[in-house]
Amino acid sequence: MGTDDYKDLEEATPSTMASRLKSLRKRDFVYFLPILLCAYSILKEIKVGEPFMYKYQTEYLNLTADQLTSEIYPYFPYAYLFSLIPIFLLTDLFLYKPTMLTEVLGQIGFRASLVFTNDITSQQAGQIAY
Fold it and tell me: Do 107 and 117 belong to one domain?
């Protein structure tokens, strides 16, 4: 290694060094962002309370099994079906951040309806937000 190898570093001005660092950060961000999005999509599907939801709704919210299976739970698949088309279209227009924010707000609404309310209408609204 001669002194010629370090000549570029000595001649580099602070502005070119900053632009090199900025391009390096952009390049690393291109790899980091998809990894972050994949990790978010995996972690959002881990729902620890899901197996206990039926027991919670029957024992603590005093809802009957017939109410749950015929009046409350059928709202989720239809709401999910009707929300997929706008979600796909709006994600293409606005990218992923508003979609993720809407999803997080829906999860908060669902959990709030489980914890703070016990009537059938609010449970149906929670299933729609889920």
Answer: yes
